[in-house]
Amino acid sequence: MRLVLHAGTHKTGTTSLQRILAANRDVLRHRGYLYPLFRAEKTSHNPFAHELALCGPDGVGDLRRRISAGAGRDETVVVSAEELSARILGTRYWDGFDGEDYWDRRRAYLARLRGVLADFDEIAVHLCFRRHDDYAEALYATKVLSGQVRGAFGEFRSQCAPLFDYRAQLDAFRAVFDDVRIASYEALRPDVVTNMLDWIGLPALPDTGARANVTPDARLVFWHRHRSTGDRHRKAVLERARFVRTGGVSAGPGRSTLWASPEERQEFLGRCTDPEPGFFPPAPGRKETVSADLGEAQMRDIDRAFKDWRRRNGRFAGLFPDLFGGR
After folding, report:
1. In whole angstroms, what is the distance from residue 103 CA to residue 99 CA?
2. Which InterPro entries does its entry note (predicted)?
3. What pLDDT does residue 203 have?
4. What is the architecture of the domain spanning 2-200?
5. Which DSSP letter does residue 31 get?
6. Contact 75, 34 (CB under 8 A)
7. What is the CB neighbour count within 10 angstroms for residue 32?
């Protein structure tokens, strides 16, 4: 059996790609590709990546059986899970990235992954990397809105520093897999899903709609983090995230950024590594941006928009009216 392993990274069109793959399982199967249904409610294989980090020996054997179940000898199995680019052994979700044993846990995780995939005769690993500064902003926004990160942008960059060492991450994959192929997100744009299908070697598939999991305006991410800090009501936190993700309000004109200054951005880039020399295409000139650090008057404007949006669309407002008092 052959395996195409799309291992991320995050914020490179992965969710959009996975939705198209899941929506076209029958088309893929007809053409000799199996996109496994690992968990019914998920279009991705991220649950597989999470289970791999925490399961015991019996669980490892079960994962090995499940990932190739139903595949014919002449079929190509396609697995897509961006969490494979980040997870480490023995911690839950995004814990432990700032631990002294991070790289030991990371290498142990990938070695376990290789063992689980031992039934495949041929494995091609695909990794897509995004320019570090854009990746940091987009990844932080996603993790704030999912509730997995609560701290400020600078704290996140420090705690997750190994994720931006692309060279070391690539070396870790190549230490256990013979065939690791890399591409830049910038080179695959603007039609990232179509270009990624071609890069991975899959047939063209019907588009299923707009891009998924698009990074929202940084000012709304700033508002969400500050209004959700210390809020113990998870439903309220999730409702704010839904408001932000569904474009419940315009945060204002211009493109906003979480970077405090161009100097902060350049200092961060100076500590990052590329997968290979000259990997990223030349950076385009950046459009003028505004700071995402909102003043209190702007925060109150968004509060009012959130209240209006919740009255019109809020999933939980009717059931839990006491949870949604604005500030």
Report:
1. 9
2. P-loop_NTPase
3. 94
4. 3-Layer(aba) Sandwich (3.40)
5. T
6. yes
7. 12
